[in-house]
Each structure stands twice: as structure tokens, then as C-alpha cells.
Amino acid sequence: MFQDAEDPELFLETFTVTTWREHLRQHVERGTVADAALEERARAYLVGNTVVRHLVWAYAVPAARADTEPEVIPDALPEPAPTAAPAAADPP
Hints:
By secondary structure, the chain is mostly helical. The protein has one domain (1-92). The protein contains two helices and two strands. The protein has helices at residues 20-28, 33-43; strands spanning 2-3, 11-12. The chain has a two-stranded antiparallel ribbon with strand order 1-2. A hairpin with a 7-residue loop joins strand 1 (2-3) and strand 2. The protein is flat, with a radius of gyration of 16 Å. The mean pLDDT is 73.
């Protein structure tokens, strides 16, 4: 969590995941009913508009577009192989 030095009411929260696919999984597979309730409660404290931006590692994605999954260049690290455990067993 970062706070803007010029505007103390502006905060920046960041999350880092290893792949775009993992990011998409967080939106689709990892949320729970309890998570949604907490997010709704947290949004009640927001003042004004929130801005969501997706930043990708500059050296792994030559030209990312918001509506597509970025294509990783061949020299980038490969996506980790899936584990034997099903996604539902992963902690949220």
C-alpha cells in the first residue's frame, strides 16, 4: 500500500502475480462469498472514483492490449506448470 506524498488522501494498492492467467484466475475462481461481502464493505469507505490499472512487466510483453491476454515473448520465463492439486484446494 502506497500513499501519495502530494495528496495524502490518495492511496495505491498493488498486487503482483507471475502470469496474466493467474490474474484472471483471481477474478474468476478465487473469490468467495465472504470475499465479496468484505469488498462491498470496503467500497463504502471510498470517496470519489477508483481507478483500476493493469500493469505488465515491460520486458515480457511487447504490446499489451486491455481486451486480450498478452503474448509473452520467447525469452521470458515460462508459466509454471499446474500443480496436481485442483484449484479449489488452493487457499483464497
